[in-house]
Amino acid sequence: MADPLFPMKTDKKIKRVLVVNPFGIGDVLFTTPLIRAIKAANPQWRIHFICNKRTRPILEHNPYIDEIIVIEKDEYRDLLKSSKVDFVKKFLSLLAKVKTDHFELAIDLSLGSQYGFFLKLLGVKRRIGFDYKKRGRFLTDRIRIDGFRGSHIVEHYLRLLGPLNIKPHGSEIEMRVSEEDKRWASEQLALKGRDEDRTIVGIIPGGGASWGKDAGRKQWNPKNFAEIAKSLKGERGLRILLLGDDGDRQLCDQISSGIPGGVENFCGKTDLGRFAALLGSCKLVVTNDGGPLHVAVSQNVKTISIFGPVDDKVYGPYPPGDEHVVMTASGVDCRPCYEGFRVADCRDYRCLDRIAPSAVLDKAKELLSKAA
């Protein structure tokens, strides 16, 4: 008898599957349990994944994905401005590839109508996804949502297995790191510190790149991160790594310069694979809400994450557990205010400012005292 939660039978005619997730680091990581479940249930299916250039490294060594297709919207926009002819050629080439690959099934996580339209136009017979604001009109199997709320995004994504009669195959997010990146991280840590056996703590004061100009809305005061780093380095003699992308360099330099003896500043010096490898060397990572948090979780590292306007029950570390501590402000009734993929027009940072460095430090010491 079929499970009532999964009433439909898997289509035996399916050979190729296209998964679409054009969003940021966290969102693509949240997709990995879905991918794993699909491949576990149907190992003969070839899974192709559409993502952007920034998130490609998350998927490059994933054993469940057979091919990655990169679509960088900014490149298409720039090409359209410079040469409409070249834009049309590139776009038609992309459509031709998708059509030539003969996908029988698509899982569309874009929350828009554009991908669904072109997938239907290109003859993908079955198109599963979310119907957000009636944008799922070109999908054959749609789950209506008015935004991600009530449960974690991973769990929302796993709901899309229902129409395929597939059950989850574990809930852990994952990012496989190459042996080359692991060797690089090991060599860098050996070069920068003689006491390789000292416990390493990663500090990530930036993040939130997918929010663009509003990234600062989800970032704790850098002085607080400096206080945490200074205390852990001075009181406990730990090795502190400052991490972030190129846009966080000034922030990390500011923190590093204020700590006696400095810290090991890798900010802007890694790609995503090497970033993940360095995180994998840490016993604890202290970070803002955002993609870097989820990369740390994917490397099985203990985390302390700072959540202001965003709902940690939806966007927090997954799966949740004692090794992942989420810090939020108490007595701030207006949080979380990020809803419908928009943050409230608010310049009151109480939800971040009321998270005391001393409370974060206490949690850090507690996690570090536990056996690895």
Q: What's this, in brief?
A:
The protein has 372 residues and is of the alpha/beta class. The chain is built from 14 helices and twelve strands.
Describe this structure in words.
The protein is of the alpha/beta class. It folds into 2 domains: 16-164, 3-Layer(aba) Sandwich (Rossmann fold), CATH 3.40.50; 179-369, Rossmann fold (3-Layer(aba) Sandwich), CATH 3.40.50. It has helices at 25-41, 56-59, 73-82, 84-100, 114-121, 153-158, 179-192, 222-236, 249-257, 272-279, 291-298, 312-315, 350-353, 357-369, and strands at residues 16-20, 46-51, 67-70, 105-108, 126-132, 141-145, 200-204, 239-242, 264-265, 284-288, 302-306, 324-327. A 6-stranded parallel β-sheet has the order 3-2-1-4-5-6, sandwiched between helices. Strands 9-8-7-10-11-12 form a 6-stranded parallel β-sheet, with helices on both faces. The longest helix is centred in the first third of the chain and has 17 residues, at 25-41. 41% of the residues are buried.
What features would you highlight for this structure?
single chain, 372 residues, alpha/beta, Rossmann fold, six-stranded parallel β-sheet, 14 helices, 37% helix, disordered N terminus
Q: How are the elements arranged and paired?
A:
Elements: E1 16-20, H1 25-41, E2 46-51, H2 56-59, E3 67-70, H3 73-82, H4 84-100, E4 105-108, H5 114-121, E5 126-132, E6 141-145, H6 153-158, H7 179-192, E7 200-204, H8 222-236, E8 239-242, H9 249-257, E9 264-265, H10 272-279, E10 284-288, H11 291-298, E11 302-306, H12 312-315, E12 324-327, H13 350-353, H14 357-369
Parallel strand pairs: 1-2, 1-4, 2-3, 4-5, 5-6, 7-8, 7-10, 8-9, 10-11, 11-12
Helix pairs in contact: 1-11, 3-4, 7-10, 8-9, 8-14
